[in-house]
Specification:
The chain has 381 residues and is mainly α. The protein is built from 13 helices and two strands. The protein is elongated, with a radius of gyration of 29 Å.
Length: 381
Amino acid sequence: MAVGGGVVGGLYIVGRLAERQLVKAREAETALLVERTRKANQFSATESTCRHTLASLMPTLLNQVRESLNTEAVTALLRAKPGPEEKLELWERLKVLAISQCLAVIVGSAFLAVMLRTQLNVLAGALYQQEMSTSSSERMSPALQQAFLNSSHHFVTAGLAGVCQNLESCVKSNLSLSLTARLTLSELEAHLTQLFEMVREDQSGIFSDPAPSFISQEEESTLSAEERERLAHLLADSLDVLESEDTLELLVAVCRQGLAHLLDRVADHYSVSPLPAYNNINNKASNSTESDSDSGFVSPASVALPLARLLPILTAVLEEEGGDPWLNHLQESPSLQRQAANVYETFSFPQTSSKEGETWTSTLYQAVTSFWTSTMSPDTT
């Protein structure tokens, strides 16, 4: 009986231990599920912030491109009917500026979208760790957060001006097209793609060295020495992400998508501009082709326009390129969102504790609101 009682007692203890371990396992699983849900909600809030901030900075980017690559001034001089030699020089200048503008908007907005997402998710990760930490030394002041975000505003102003200069120089050196050259849509695409590849390989350009475009040389006088050091670390982390091989491949893909968006807009002008020289080719065309011709339809792929006529079209399309289609693409792109999620997960490694008080979302909102206020004020725009 004693042995039986000992066995029963042992089984009871084992059962209690097993029950306790099961409860702990369930608690850990529940905590992990809560943590994942919490982080998913916080990342969603960060994505919303990214979309709104990108929309607020895009007009500044477009204005900077227009100022740095001013086609309107050249157009005004052409309207004054200069002499033949000066007129040709002005058209050549307009050619370089118009194509440089297209590349500047595409490259600039792609870098802005990626860097902005990177910065906001690095900041979100830091704020998340701050929320989980009880150490006061981990706290980030609003001034530090705003100084960190200011690099994106620096990019769409002074930084982008330098990018535009490099692009103009690259286009001027590599664009050999005559103003009278007639280009089909596919030929225009080939030339723009070739120029973009040269921009990408430019050792002095933004793809090779993006740091000068985002980092201001001005000292943050409102920050303490410790905060300036932390700001340097935050910027270094963001630039490490931006300069990584995966991010550069993503940027190239987004820029190519930008070229496709641009050409889609230009294609509308091809569809209503048939070229007479193309009307009589392919005399042995199929019955369906003859039917299309009889009905007045001309495929955009069969139309060619002189480069001189394409230049004002390209500059006019830029007014729309910063609008809904391209901006929406940058805001909703799945590839950009995946990259942002990777950054957020990296800089907000899993925590299982929680803390009452000021929430992560409200802290990030206050930081970005301060950033919007400063960048949209009359003194900074």
